[in-house]
Predict the structure.
Amino acid sequence: MDWLKNWNEALDELERNLEGTADLEKLGRLAGCSAYHFQRMFSYLAGVPLSEYIRRRRMTRAAADLQSGEKVVDVALRYGYESPTSFNRAFQAVHGIPPSQAKQTGAKLKAFPRIHFKLVLKGAEEMEYQIVKRAPFRIVGFRTPLPMDAEESFQMVPKFWAEIGPRQAELFPLMNEDPAGMLGVCTCDEEENYYYIAVASSAPVPEGMYEWTIPAATWAVFTGTGRLPDAIQDLQRRIVSEYLPDSGYEWAKAPDIEAYLNQPGEESRFQVWLPVVKR
């Protein structure tokens, strides 16, 4: 499958450059998505953040280098650590012992092999979705700058929802377009990336809010229920790991949208709008 081939080529590229800085733009191109989505998808597929995977792989190689007799300072510089102190901290976090001790015969170390993506038969549980083509539509609401580092954004978005929580009632009177519900929108614009808490609306923009036009796109719209945020995060993982590989689609360069169709509770109803393009 091209999807598997592309992702494994991206991981090959990552392995070739563990001694340097990961080129997220290139990794995304190889995998067929943006740098931001590469980080998000990797976390869903591998079950570990990309930065943590890279750190583990580097420390696995560093341990082998130390056991072959190389100096700690040389190994630290090779893997991007400008000071022995920062390298020592990273090494101990993975192996549980300092680099100097790793050079000794009989030292107990940990190895984290590289990941290879392969097809695993899943899908016993159904996924409800539909393919929707939409003209551009306008949203109105609150926004905050979104870091292009996906792991930072995972931490920032819940904080923003908590911050805006008391003001969500201000959005309800503006809601007069589809899709319905309270929307969480990542613009995914690598020049100027924002996260919106907004509604689809043609109403004037109140003071302190912003408007943005979501471009025309084809969307795979998935519907789910359950307790938030776990239920929607589980759906997003299944979309990436079960739907995309065998769907004939790939993640398009367009915003991704979460639509919350009722107030959060044990049986919250929501949708994930994934922008897609035919492979």
Remarks:
- The mean pLDDT is 90.
